[in-house]
Design brief:
By secondary structure, the protein is an alpha+beta fold. The chain contains 3 helices and 2 strands; from the N terminus they run H-H-E-E-H. It has one domain. A two-stranded antiparallel sheet has the order 1-2. The two termini are about 25 Å apart.
Length: about 70
């Protein structure tokens, strides 16, 4: 969920996500649409990034490998 007061009230979710992702992940220019998924490890390093459909099983597998 994004704060619409900080990231904008426009109805275009791509615009809001682009601003948010640019703030939290400087190397994630290609991950800017909706849905977007960025997973961080405990040191706040990006371990997985993806835009578009992704299965829940894929997310679980990535999290298992990166623990």
């Amino acid at each position: 969920m994004l704060d619409v007061y900080k990231y904008g009230e426009k109805r275009n979710p791509h615009y809001r996500m682009h601003k948010f992702i640019a703030e939290i992940c400087s190397g994630c220019e290609e991950v800017s649409g909706f849905p977007s998924l960025i997973l961080f490890d405990r040191q706040n390093k990006v371990v997985y990034k993806h835009t578009g459909a992704v299965s829940f099983d894929t997310i679980v597998e990535v999290m298992k490998v990166k623990e």
